[in-house]
Design a protein that fits this description.
Structural class: alpha/beta
Oligomer: single chain
Strand content: 25-35%
CATH architecture of the largest domain: 3-Layer(aba) Sandwich
Protein name: Amidohydrolase
Pfam families: M20_dimer (PF07687), Peptidase_M20 (PF01546)
InterPro entries: Amidohydrolase, Bact_exopeptidase_dim_dom, Peptidase_M20, Peptidase_M20_dimer
Strand order of the largest sheet: 1-2-4-3-5-16-6-15
Helix content: 25-40%
CATH topology of the largest domain: Aminopeptidase
CATH class of the largest domain: Alpha Beta
Bound molecules: zinc ion
Keywords: Hydrolase, Manganese, Metal-binding
CATH superfamily of the largest domain: Zn peptidases
Number of domains: 2
Order of helices and strands: HHHEEEHEHHEEEEEHEEEHEEHEHEH
Number of helices: 11
Cofactor: Mn(2+)
Largest sheet: 8 strands, mixed
């Protein structure tokens, strides 16, 4: 992979690593990416892009046209950091206590900037429109959805869109592609059970939300085992169950929070409707009532066959067959690029961050994680090749 990097991108490597370190030292949480967005926008302006700021609050789009073709392509990176306190002691470690780029979005932003710089140079030959999309709030609030709702693809039409995520555990610079339903939908469901509190010694004069809640938790276990067809992927996990403050007091309320994951929209719909039914009927059978709220939803991420094949073949052509690993499986994690893929065809793929614990192998969202700078030029070269291959 590394010897097939575009020479002009290799020449910018030192500058881009310094940029990545700057972003890593100055992490900003979801929808607070003000300085990051400003830096991205001003660099794009310097390189000659038409820049639109503040789409999806802190999102930035850079647009560039060469030639007369109507072909168009969108490349997307995410910019936000996480509320995690970094435990690394690199010279470029986070300078903000309690915030760090623990998912490598500093690296994704840098990869797309490195590609954007080359794409704007006379060395890059393409014919059409390129839109580089820097989105906020991937980790929370669904920044991709915010941009889509503000007319991203009406304002910046794209034939196809691409994005990548670094992946610890995959050798540095190797690509992973998957056609079809690749990442799970994620819904958070909150169930509030309303009972009638009283003295623990007189339970007959109460409606106990703790017992009701326990019955709801057990009832929910039957959804995946009894309602979902065997072979389909589905998860219903109760992550929190809060109620009561004293051993001799039966409380009024209990609250549960669930994460719900599925690989198909119809399974997602089934899970949500069964959760509502089971919570409601179970609560009523105990004389209680309940309120079920569904929020923070990310849809299933679906890669289109056409553009996944296009990207995979291009990766093999550019970097060799060895550069693409075949054992990629769908994952139960979620990703808000799914909102963009609901609107435009395209592909979301993985780029290995390294498989050695000392370099790139530490999993994302861990306080000891770091993005591997060696893969910046590989990712940037591939983004540039996607542009040159599609827009011609
Ligand atoms: Zn993340
Ligand atoms: Zn991420």
């Amino acid at each position: 992979m590394f010897d097939s990097v575009i020479p002009a991108i290799k020449d910018s490597e030192t500058e881009m690593i310094a940029l990545r370190h700057h972003l890593h030292m100055n992490p900003e949480l979801s929808l607070e990416e003000f300085k990051t967005a400003d830096l991205v926008a001003s660099l794009l302006e310097t390189w000659g892009y038409n820049v639109t700021r503040e789409i999806g609050k802190t999102g930035v789009v850079g647009s560039l046209k060469k030639g007369n073709s109507v072909k168009s392509i969108g490349l997307r990176a995410d910019m936000d950091a996480l509320p995690i306190h970094e435990t690394n002691s690199f010279p470029w470690s986070s300078t903000v206590p309690g915030k760090m780029h623990a998912c490598g979005h500093d690296g994704h932003t840098t990869i797309l900037l490195a590609a954007a710089k080359y794409i704007a140079s006379p060395d890059c030959l393409f014919d059409g429109h390129v839109h580089v999309i820097f989105q906020p709030a991937e980790e929370a609030y669904g920044g991709a959805d915010l941009m889509v709702k503000e007319g991203l693809f009406e304002r910046f039409p794209c034939d196809c869109i691409f994005a990548l995520h670094n992946m610890p555990g995959i050798p540095a610079g190797k690509f992973g592609f998957y056609s079809g339903n690749f990442m799970a939908s994620a819904d958070t469901v909150k169930i509030t059970i309303n009972g009638y509190g009283g003295h623990g010694a007189y339970p007959n004069r109460t409606v106990d939300p703790v017992v009701t809640g326990a019955a709801v938790v057990m009832a929910l276990q039957s959804i995946v085992s009894r309602n979902v067809p065997p072979g389909e992927t589905a998860v219903v996990s109760v992550g929190t169950f809060h109620s009561g403050i004293a051993s001799n007091v039966i409380p009024d309320h209990a609250s549960l929070e669930l994460t719900v994951r599925a690989m198909k929209q119809e399974i997602r719909d089934l899970l949500i409707s069964r959760i509502k039914e089971l919570a409601d009927f179970t609560a009523r059978s105990y004389g209680a009532s309940c309120v079920v709220e569904v929020y923070d939803s990310y849809p299933v991420l679906i890669n289109t066959d056409e553009y996944t094949r296009f990207a995979q073949e291009l990766a093999i052509k550019t970097f060799g067959a060895d550069a693409v690993i075949d054992e990629i499986h769908p994952v139960n994690g979620s990703e808000d690029f799914a909102f963009m893929l609901q609107k435009r065809p395209g592909s979301y793929f993985l780029l290995g961050n390294g498989d050695k614990e000392a370099k790139g192998g530490c999993m994302v969202h861990n306080p000891g994680y770091d993005f591997n700078d060696e893969i910046i030029s590989v990712g940037a070269s591939f983004f540039a090749r996607l542009v040159e291959s599609h827009c011609r």
